[in-house]
Amino acid sequence: MSNFDTKEARDKRIKDELEELNNKLELDLSRDDSERDYQDPQRPIRTKADFKPEALFVGQILGADGFDNEDALFLEVIFKHGEHWKLLALPSPIQTHSCYPDEDGTYVFAHPFEFYLTSGSIHGWPKFIIKVYRLDDFGKIDAIAYGSVTLPNSAGTFELECSTWRPMGNCIDESYSFFLGGPPKLTTLNPLTRDLTLRENISTVSSGNIHIQCDVILKSFEDLGIKTS
Amino acid sequence: MERSEEDLSLGSSEEYRDEEKSIFTEDMNIDNPHEYSKHENLQTYDPKRQPHSFFYLGISGQIDSGEFYDRDGIAIKYDIVKGNRWKLVKGEETGISQHGFRNQGASKRIVWNFPFEVIYSSTNVKDWPQIVLYGSGKDFRGREVIEFYGSVHVPTSPGRHTRYVRMFQPVTSSIFGKFLGWIKGNPASYKDAPNLIAKGEGREVTRVQSGGLLKITFQITQRNLEKYGYKTTSNDD
Prior knowledge:
heterodimer; A: alpha+beta; Immunoglobulin-like; 5-stranded antiparallel sheet; B: mainly beta; 2 domains; 4-stranded antiparallel sheet; globular; cytoplasm (chain A); C2_B9-type_dom (chain A); cilium biogenesis/degradation (chain A)
């Protein structure tokens, strides 16, 4: 090629270079995600954050029955989850009102709850730890039963039943509790779920049932291949 | 009498006239964010813009019947409580039913058959809606007095559901207070209802007894919850 290009040659060269650049640009564009979405506009654009699993537990502590008691009862419910779970909305501690039993011995608590968590592991699925308290006519409060229940892990509506128990003492403690109230209690809640080996040393007496209704919504568990139903 | 052609049509001709604005138009009606023309399929392609849309929850159903031990002549009032992010698209959030009385026989069932239909839109499932229910009756002087309280969460899975709600009534702590309340037509009641019933905080110091059982049927329709990634039902159809 001579040093002195004719005008046409120069134009042609510029045009060729421009075309080359254009082709390169088109190739880059087609590698973009938007091209794929143009072909399928129904598919939403999801970012990495959309794939973090979340779970919503919504429901009510319905009531209790099976407690042979004529005094008022109320519950304290502790929501426990594993270390890789994180609460997204601040929940309120659950303590129900005190309810007097009706003729069948059923108690109505109707205490709504809602927990919205994000999860990093399937270990440590959320549980309820329930402490049942008795309120007698003199205004005395006594813990009379303990129980724990795991919340459901598949989406849908569930009715859970939590059975409860209380520790049993010796002859003297039992007759004391029968006549005056004040049954033996646990000093810590560890034997319930945290440290199950402590249960080897205690004897317990069965108590009533707590009824809970729980609705569950799961997000992105299936996308990660986790099957729960 | 001569019949004109208009008499043979199904309804008024105005209802079946084609809309002048086609749903395939490019102009977006920004005033109404829920209008169908904003459907994701029909929007023009714009890679910089997220196809943001709400998800919709349609709640319909009726408050069927209930049993309230020996009480009679109860009217049910409902209130839907939800978080701030949930926007009401259509329907009424509160309603009061008629006063229902039992049938003369031995059955204690009171029937209202009171329907409701509400549509909500939101972007997050937090603060799922709840229905708070009040049962009120007329006292000996004809004043309306709220006696029973109860609440139920709207079911999260689509389809038909029946829920039995146990109502409770607050108990006055002293006999004198009870008598005074009966005379004045103002028995123990909750001050900050519906939030007190729906949230549960602040109820620890109250005492209640069982009030009765209420049957509610729900029919839930959902739209776009799957697109957000939420799985609400285990039935894989």
